[in-house]
Design brief:
- By secondary structure, this protein is α+β, with helices and mostly antiparallel strands.
- The protein has a single domain, classed as endopeptidase domain like (from Nostoc punctiforme) (endopeptidase fold (from Nostoc punctiforme)).
- About 30% of the residues lie in helices and about 20% in strands.
- Strand 3 (about 40-50) and strand 4 (about 55-60) form a beta hairpin.
- Helix 4 (about 105-115) runs antiparallel to helix 6.
Length: about 200
């Protein structure tokens, strides 16, 4: 996989780009193993041009980074400073960029998704998490947005902006699915060198 320094890439990031994370803990290991992927977490880049800030919209199990809208450390759906997430994250991180910026209608649809999912807790149904990675004969998940995991949130956004087919339930996608999905209008993922990140 190609790599690039974060500061070289930073000013080219656009709202809607995807950020992938490879955790090393037991929970992350389980996600990577079940989904046969190098990635255990995914979030969506949000660029705030007014403040020249790159943010990450995600649903996460940790309370490691402060939500910029509530100023609290919280689990679940949140929006955090991407540079702070990079600084604290112990594993590899990659970005998959859109090949074209959002159109106005897509930007509006993404904002509506963020408003609708704001503050939701991280997925509470372990079976739903397992079934997201399982493609066997026991059927599929039924979409339930009472609590939400990372790739489910990203898939809801991708479906809302028209980049991902809504025929498949949003909770059927893993981070690895979103990195590999050949139909998304995104470039291949590039690994971030974070030595100079800020």
């Amino acid at each position: 996989m190609e790599s690039i320094d974060y500061l070289v890439l930073r000013d080219k990031l656009t709202t809607g780009d995807l950020a992938f994370f490879a955790g090393s803990g037991a929970f992350s290991w389980g996600i990577k193993r079940l989904s046969r992927s190098r990635w255990s977490h995914v979030g969506v880049i949000v660029v705030d041009a007014a403040t020249d800030t790159v943010l990450l919209w995600e649903s996460d199990t940790t309370e490691d980074v402060r939500d910029v809208t509530t100023a609290r450390f919280e689990r679940g759906v949140r929006i955090v400073e991407f540079s702070e997430k990079l600084r604290l994250y112990p594993g590899p991180v990659a970005v998959r960029r859109r090949q074209a910026p959002f159109r106005d209608v897509q930007r509006t649809a993404f904002k509506e998704v963020r408003d609708r999912l704001k503050g939701l807790p991280y997925e509470e149904d372990l079976l739903e998490l397992i079934l997201a990675a399982y493609d066997g004969p026991f059927g599929q998940n039924t979409e339930d947005l009472q609590s939400i995991f990372c790739s489910e949130a990203a898939a809801v956004m991708l479906q809302a902006v028209g980049d991902l087919n809504p025929a498949r339930a949003s909770n059927e996608f893993t981070p690895g699915d979103l990195e590999r999905h050949e139909l998304l209008p995104y470039a291949p993922a590039v690994l971030l060198n974070r030595v100079y990140s800020s």
